[in-house]
Amino acid sequence: MSPGLAAVATGFRGFARYLGGVLGADAYAKYLEHHHAAGHGEPPLTEREFWRDRTDRQDSNPQGRCC
Amino acid sequence: MASRPDERVSTAKGSGSLTADPKLPPTAVDEAVREAEDKNWTPAKIALWAAIALLGGVAWFMLAIVRGETVNAIWFVFASVCTYLIGYRFYSKVIERLITNPDDRRATPAEYKADGKDYVRTDRNVLFGHHFAAIAGAGPLVGPIIAAQMGYLPGTIWIIIGVVLAGAVQDYLVMFFSMRRGGRSLGQMAREELGIIGGTAALIATLLIMVIIVAILALVVVNALGESPWGVFSVGMTIPIALFMGVYLRYIRPGKIMEVSLIGFVLLMAAIIGGGLVADTEWGSAFFTLDKVTIAWGLIVYGFIAAILPVWLLLAPRDYLSTFMKIGVIVMLALAIIVVRPEITVPAFSEFASRDNGPVFPGTLFPFLFVTIACGALSGFHALISSGTTPKLIEKERQTRFIGYGGMLMESFVAIMALVAAISIDRGLYFAMNAPAALTGGTVETAAAWVNSLGLAGVNVNPAMLAETAANVGEQSIVSRTGGAPTLAVGLAHIMQQFIGGTALMAFWYHFAIMFEALFILTAVDAGTRVARFMLQDSIGNFVPKFKEASWRPGAWLCTAVMVGAWGAVLLMGVTDPLGGINTLFPLFGIANQLLAAIALSVCLAIVAKRGTFKYLWIVAVPLAFAAVVTITASYQKIFSSTPAVGYFANNAAFSKALADGKTEFGSAKSVAAMEAVVRNTAIQGWLSVIFVVLSIIVIAMALVATIKAFRNHSAGMPNIDNEDEARPSKVFAPASLIPTPAERELLAEWNKLPAELRFERAGHHK
To answer: Smallest CA–CA separation between A31 and chain B, in Å?
Structure first.
């Protein structure tokens, strides 16, 4: 890959990561990081459990969207 | 610093306990270093800001002073962006120094309450996008278009100056104070700061305002989809697409949000293209051509089901789709305007700027222009987002200026672009689209004759041109497509077709625009209904404790039904209103939104006073006074004006009298039933205005009482109650704004040298 193309690819990956962050796609990674850093005894939620828990908590804790 | 002893006292709370961890580098840039850096005006920096000021000045000159035949759209971009940059660099820093006084040595809730789920430290740039996506919706795309009836200049000035001095100030302050209170909501802060009366009034006002806002947003969608088989099909398809995405994320590939959003986006494009094909067939046209009342009922049923379905199935996936589209569309529109640079022929002040009988919305420029453009200049609804959600994610205190103030500037820019899109279309076309059918008559011939009879300078439409525009965008008719969304869609199609695709793609761009507006609005309707339902459940729960249990189905369903019933009634009222709907209801939307802003600013006023900052109270008091004067004057006119087009009760009396006189038609109401509908609608709208304004006056009065009390306490040397969370030392560092300063870079380098186990340690975590 030429250096120019590599730069474009890096830029695109950075943009995708940013967009993912805005959408909240990295929430599980952040949760794991927190879980690891906090030194909890019990094992962390699996990815599937985590996302279930996340949307289920929104059921009882709705967040507004603006007009 | 020494000249402002009053702030030091109040922010000193707990500062003594902010002993930094000796193993770590400093968690904040040294105050003196930062000050010196701020005041260090190098020649390059001076040249840069002089250039920005000069460019902005020239742009404003072109917009406001030069009166040529046309004005180029690029000047709107320069005038707004340069003003935003100056407002952000200078005014928001003034607020930071004089009012908020952030202390980066203090941990934010995301740090001391970290739970990996709701309280998560988030990169400032990501959070900026996240917050922006939460505050920006259909509002800034609709208000400026409706306000364009008065010409481009009044709206442009209000959007740009209003955001710098009012809207962004509100968002920033609410966010900062909520962050200092562990992410408490506006309602909770109102209760704490204003007492039980002010707090309750604020709660009821918020609930009612949400009902009105949801209803009128829904009305915008109904008006955009009525008699439009293409629109109905493609917007309707968003529901199965969202359901599919929900199931995909829940069962097939959990957490793959980017992937499913891309799939959803492709399906969405397919739905838009498919809509054109379906609308062209005989069965598709027959099946999907629905009148507005049917669509309104569909939306009401949909609203109820969507609000009781689990979040994962419909709300969450559509939210991803809507965020994805939002960012994409806004970037695309900005690029298109910069590349195409359309010439604007709309005058700075139109003939209606000095009259009170405009066909799009009635009333004089002051106050009605300022309530018509709410989102984009000053939006009270933002206070609900800026408190609660975003403050729980902020990494460092100083970042609130970038995220709160800066985020709102972005929304204002969206409003400016919507304005540009709306005024880039022919002015005659604008009035034919935005005046109610009662005036245009609903056909291209009558509409063209009516528009030409207005005697507007340079306006001359003919029926063929209206029919051709409708055909170009793939609609049966574009006459009286009120609500702003169709006008924006035509404007966007007009600009985008010059950018990509030409006339052949106009219909696609039109329905693309309708689709994304509908997507934002449906998300807002769904989320708004849920939030309102919880507020209602919580309030009833004070009397019947069972209602506080969110999982108690009968309570949840009953409260959902009540909320949907409330906005549904207003929606149906707007759809069937013989006077046109949007022109009678939209002022109520703006008034409601601005009253909420007045409530939010009142809470901020009381908090700032309690912190002992009296000398600079004007920073909050000025926008509060402006919002209060505008909304109370607008409400007063809506209630007491003797001009029937403006005053709800004057209209009510006129129609009641006509009915009593035994007339069978009056004004634009052509039957007794229609006349009765006007009497009923105006009474409801009038009383709603009365309730809003009374509740808001109570809240403002309570805030003034709290402020005066704080001043007395302060003068007597007594401490004021401070509801902030206790200060805890921070153990992390991050820059404050988009571009790190040299001092911040230096400090970041120090942090990067730390061993990993020290760097990621979270402070104050529950063990």
So the answer is: 4
Q: Average pLDDT, stretch B280-297? A: 94
- Cross-strand bridge partners of residue B71: B344
Asked if B760 lies within 8 A of A63 by C-beta distance, the reply is no
Among candidates B531, B609, B541, which has minimal Cα distance to B193? B609
Q: Which of B135, B582, B521 is CA-nearest to residue B299?
A: B521
Rounded CA separation B731/B105 (Å): 8
Task: Give the CA-trace dihedral at B685, B529, B173, B720, to 10 degrees.
Answer: 90
* B704-729 average pLDDT score: 93
**CB–CB contact A34 B116 (8 Å):** yes
For residue B119, give the nearest of B103, B104, B107 by alpha carbon. B107
Q: Which residues of A fall within a CB distance of 8 Å from B217? A: 67
Nearest CA in chain A to B110: A34
- Answer whether the bond into residue B22 is a cis peptide, omega within 30°: no
Chain A nearest CA to B140, separation (Å): 8
Q: What is the Cα–Cα distance from B604 to B700, expressed in whole angstroms?
A: 11
CB contact under 8 A, B255 and A51: yes
**Quick one: B402 exposed, middle or buried, by C-beta within 10 A (0-12, 13-18, 19+)?**
buried
DSSP 8-state class, residue B729: B
Q: Cβ separation of A63 and B120 shorter than 8 Å?
A: no
SS3 of B178-200:
HHHCCCCCHHHHHHHHHHHHHHH
Q: Write out pLDDT tens, residues B68-85.
A: 889 999 999 999 999 999
Q: What is the C-alpha separation between B625 and B627, in angstroms, rounded? A: 6
Cα separation, B494 vs B73, whole angstroms? 14
- Closest to B169 measured CA to CA, from B724, B606, B618: B618
Enumerate the residues of chain B whose CB falls inside 8 A of the CB of residue A59. Answer: 310-311, 550
Q: Quick one: average pLDDT of B135-158?
A: 94
Closest CA to A28 of B257, B334, B363: B257
**Lookup result for tokens 């939306």:** B299
Contacts of B178 in chain A (CB under 8 A): none
Whole-structure pTM value = 0.94
The pair of three-digit structure tokens given for residue B622, joined into one six-digit string: 């000025």
Strand partners, B344: B71
- Distance (Å) from the C-alpha of residue A62 to the closest C-alpha of chain B? 6
End-to-end CA distance of chain A: 45
DSSP state at residue B15: G
Got the DSSP string for B422-476? HHTS-HHHHHHHHS-HHHH-SSHHHHHHHHHHT--TT----HHHHHHHHHHTT-S
Q: Count of CB atoms within 10 A of residue B285's CB?
A: 15
The sign of the CA dihedral B726, B730, B736, B738 is negative
Across the interface, do A34 and B114 touch by the CB < 8 Å criterion?
yes
Nearest-neighbour CA in chain B from A37: distance (Å) = 6
